[in-house]
Specification:
Layout (H helix, E strand, L loop, with lengths): L6 E6 L8 H5 L3 E10 L19 E5 L4 H13 L13
Parallel strand pairs: 1-2, 2-3
């Protein structure tokens, strides 16, 4: 099955977005795709359940650590040579 321009996952941040663009992103996800929220967006996100349920799409999120916790985590990673794991996907 070809997914065309569809995406398996995407991440939303706190940056302001054009009205409706965040929920329009849901249409770009493949079945069982996931939107991961980083932080709290400045406006509520509205998504009708029928945009999610039939294709088993997911919206998830988490609150980032405080600046002090982030420094501690980065210091730990540097001390033990832990680096990021980056996974990229073609857009087209």
């Amino acid at each position: 099955m070809s997914t065309g321009n569809a995406s398996r996952s995407t991440t939303w941040s706190r940056k302001p977005a054009a009205k409706g663009s965040r929920t329009a992103t849901l249409d770009l996800l493949v079945p069982q795709g996931r939107v991961s929220m980083v932080g709290v967006p400045p406006e509520p996100i509205a998504a009708h359940p029928m945009r999610l349920l039939p294709a088993e799409k997911t919206i998830s999120g988490g609150v980032p650590a405080s600046p002090g916790e982030t420094r501690l985590m980065l210091g730990f990673a540097a001390r033990y040579g832990i680096g990021p794991q980056v996974e990229t996907f073609p857009v087209a």
